[in-house]
Design a protein that fits this description.
This is A-kinase anchoring protein 7 isoform X6. The protein has 7 helices and 9 strands, in the order αβαβαββαββαβββαα. The chain has helices at about 15-45, 65-80, 105-130, 155-175, 200, 260-285, 290-320, and strands at about 55-60, 95-105, 135-145, 145-150, 180, 190-195, 220-225, 230-235, 245-250. It is elongated.
């Protein structure tokens, strides 16, 4: 799968001015050095290592029933010619366009990815400028005869979608997230890939033959309106409807959305705020000074209680 293109002045007396200037210059120098170290760290984090394996991606779900029904007809037509390719077909509910792939190794990184997705929303809305983005699909092509996909028709919408993908790459990289290597962004809708069924090669199927889809070579599948972007897992169990496990979503564009979409986005924001607060509490509790205060409070409370018990006992004996 090709990756997306990848990215005070103080009111002091005049006698203090030279000192203030020197301090500011020193602070500025340290700030630049620290910024350089930070940028270098981000660059290192951005650069995929040899064992880099993306496990999350940004998805534009394709849910227009005309498009999905057309793809099913296409898949069935291919299977009528070669039933062995059944395992290579993308399942119902999984159709999407990939904007960006990335590597998120733990819960903290997934939370960071969710934050980045939420930050992406106003940028997408700024790019769209109140207009909806229509994505028309027409024709079939392959990547090296290994991945079959429905093409996104040419037009200005491709430039807009590319700008969104590039903006996503920049925001996620600024968060220190390891994204895919830079390649030209070619939005596409995958309907089959031979890598899903390695056994096919042993059976002599080494490529997707053009004859299998020739009658759909210029077929118009329909149009999808961009209204949602999801952060999805490649590895976690898919949902019951066949779509990928979704960590977070944003709703964009002018297309009317269901109340459930709005509820899900609101819940996602609440969830992230709650996680952030819990994280702050954990960090506070782990600080040595906090733990020292807790021990002090517990110890003083125990001494005080013991003292009160002793005093009560003495009083009782006196009364007796």
């Amino acid at each position: 799968m090709p990756f997306a293109t990848v990215d005070i002045q103080d009111d002091c007396g005049s006698y203090l001015f030279p000192l203030v200037t020197d301090v500011r210059q020193a602070n500025s120098k340290r700030s630049k050095e620290n910024e350089g170290i930070k940028n270098e760290h981000i660059k290192k984090r951005k650069k995929p290592s040899k064992d880099y394996q993306p496990n999350y991606f940004l998805s534009v779900p394709i849910i227009n029933k005309k498009i999905t029904a057309g793809i099913k007809v296409l898949q069935n037509t291919i299977l009528q010619q070669d039933k062995r390719l059944a395992k290579a077909m993308v399942g119902d509910g999984s159709f999407h366009i990939t904007l960006l792939v990335m590597q998120l190794l733990n819960e903290d990184e997934v939370n960071t990815g969710t934050d980045a997705l939420l930050e992406l929303k106003p940028f997408i809305e700024e790019i769209l400028q109140g207009r909806h983005l229509t994505l028309p699909f027409q024709g079939i092509d392959t990547f090296r005869s290994q991945v079959g996909f429905v093409k996104l028709a040419d037009g200005d919408h491709v430039n807009t979608l590319t700008e969104i993908a590039e903006t996503a790459q920049r925001i996620f990289q600024e968060k220190g997230i390891l994204v895919g290597e830079s390649r030209s962004f070619k939005p596409h809708l995958t309907f089959m890939k031979l890598s899903k069924a390695p056994v096919l090669r042993k059976q002599g199927v080494k490529k997707i033959e053009p004859e299998l889809y020739e009658q759909f070579i210029d077929h118009r599948f329909g149009e999808e309106i961009l209204y949602r972007v999801d952060l999805c897992s490649m590895l976690k169990k898919k949902q019951s409807n066949g779509y990928y496990h979704c960590e977070a979503s944003i709703v964009v564009g002018k297309k009317p959305v269901g109340i459930q979409d709005l509820i899900n986005e609101a819940l996602q924001r609440e969830r992230m705020e709650l996680k952030s607060k819990v994280k702050q509490i954990k960090e506070l509790l782990l600080k040595p000074e906090t733990q020292a205060m807790i021990r002090k409070e517990l110890f003083e409370g125990r001494v005080l209680n013991d003292g009160n018990h002793t005093s009560d006992a003495d009083s009782s004996m006196t009364l007796l």
